[in-house]
Amino acid sequence: MISVTVPGTPAVANVQINYGSSGTWTKPSGLKAVLVACVGAGGGSGSGRRGASSSSRAGGGGGGGGAIVWKYIPAASLGATETVTIGAGGVGGAAVMVDSTNGNSAGGGGDTLFGAHIDAAGGGAGAGGTTTSGTGGVNGGLASACTPAFGPNALSGNQRTTPSTTTTAGGNGMNGSSACPSGGTGGGLTGGNATSAGGDGGGVYNNGTLTNGPTGGAAGVAGTAGTSNVSLMLLLDGVALALGLGTAGSGGGSSTTAAAGAGANGGNYGAGAGGGGASANGFNSGAGANGGGGLCVVLEIYD
Question: What's the pTM value of the predicted model, to 2 decimals?
């Protein structure tokens, strides 16, 4: 849920407009300014490797979280209409159905834009598992790739900084301490066929309190999708705006006796997906999953 709070200052009215899908914003008469916040979509996750029992096999990497950008824009700087483009969550990599094959990489999250004024970058894609590691989203949506591209108006999404190894459980996603969280990595398999769980999805901080992401799937079990609409408060010029963000998806567990666990989708809005687990030859690897979609919220301020 998205909420708007305006302090008790006179001569300020507001209308909340939540763009959950792309569209066109039309400037009303009498408008003084807008406060716009955009969230880039989360990156998709990779699928795990499928390989021989004598080899190491890694789970797929988790997707990176989208960036958050906000800006106060005077009415005079706005066109009669502004195009609102909502980034689509990155699509996960397909399960591997051929023996001795690396996992499939995912797609990155799309950018969310408000005209030419704001561009919130989407999260990076998770790579497919290999014989060495399953690299997480190359990065979250980077503030340097956003418009405006500087703080405090642009916050980078989080990435999976430590890739999964094939000897431990999948790496946990990174918590979104200031922006959107990244997904957990899928569980890997050792050359000795030891299975492992997937990594946990990243969580979201709200007013100093952490809402944890879901726990990774046990060996052979799918990950759990992230929850949606965990609030994050933004404050500018005395106007507070709470965005509904999501926790990230967790990774699926690896398996040697059945299909590996699939990764799980990132929550709306902007969270990365969890990666798929690795499998032995003869069984499908765990598929990757989709990142959470983007969001644009426009708060209209009148004289």
Answer: 0.90
